[in-house]
Structure of Integrase catalytic domain-containing protein:
Amino acid sequence: MAALDGVADKSVTSVIPPIVQGGLAPVTKDELWHARLGHPGKLVYDKLAKEIGLAKYEPSPYSLCSTCATAKGQLSKGVISDFKTTAPLQLVQVDLCGGFRYEEYVDSKCFLTIRDSYSRYYFVIPLKNKAAATQALINWIHQQENYFSTRGGYKVGTVRTDNGGEFTSNVLHDFFGSKGITHQLTVTDNSSQNGAVERAHRTLQEKMRSLLIGGRVPPYLWSEALRCAAFLLNRLPILPRLRSVPYAQYYGGADGPLRFNNLRTFGCAAFATLPAPLRDGKLAPPVVTGVMVGYSTNRKAYRVYIPQKNKTYETNQVSFDETVFPLRDTAASHQAYDFAIGAAPGLPKAPSVDKGVPHPVVPVDFPEPPSFPSRSSVNPPWPPPSPVAQSTRVMNSPPNSNRWYPIACGINRF
Ligand SMILES: [Zn+2]
């Protein structure tokens, strides 16, 4: 098992002061970590906590986490009926995820979700439409077999899908035939055959809902929540296999220790320094206020949603305030929350910035970006820091602490 890096997060005090607006921000250290990890159950949390040096999760006996109560239905019982696998790629379960009835803010309409049965590792691949699923799956198989060609030589053995047209095409059939891959099609009305895949995707969607509700993030950002859900699930212990997490099980520790101290709460305020080409003119302030919506899949960076632009950027030039949730008091957020708890039938739509419609969700009390010390007071004027060194800097402290923490972001792989 890959080493799990300790949580040397000195920026988090043991008790976070409650915020004036009340209600949503975590108030104790274990509540903060419960939120950062996407609301895992106590057993999973405590297992991970032991590995990375956190205290056990001690929820208040007088209250319950409203996000958990809202996002999670009755937990399904029983074990997943995978056949016994002994290595990555032996059995992969593939499904299309989409049709959430929410208008998206980007042009990916659905997601290919791929779950490796041996490690329980999730891959989430955005697609422009369902027809793109075939080629995306073929590309993924090539990529993974390439990756493992010098790391054990694992090959895809069996692919399990449902009977959807995108999985029964001749192209895919011929590809599987040429590679010697077995294609298992689940029978639509056979619940035992479908059970494993359905339960796997229910887990993913449950985590996605927890993130949206916990951060009061409107559901048109569901694709960000889905990516982040997979990212977190890949790092949380799997209960039947308490000795490992999917990430370590899949990659075998090949990419160094898995670090947790860069996790931040989904939906919290993110103060990002935009690179010059993305700014609105030379006089625009370099720091914009956005929303933390996950982690980059191919670089050490966070994904930050900027409401005014209705776009998400990846950056490591960012600091966070985990007591502020900028999209919380917006109409779209309230509407989504009401819908989640069954109090309202309507669904909010994504803002349409490109069509000239003003963004409806910027709250009146949108927090101002904090003032930071100038770079020259942090970095010695000479020799100038190299562009590479600058790109690995992360502001890791709460913005009101008025300090820079130029530490490397420790996220290895997403
Ligand atoms: Zn919770």
Residues 29-58 form one domain.
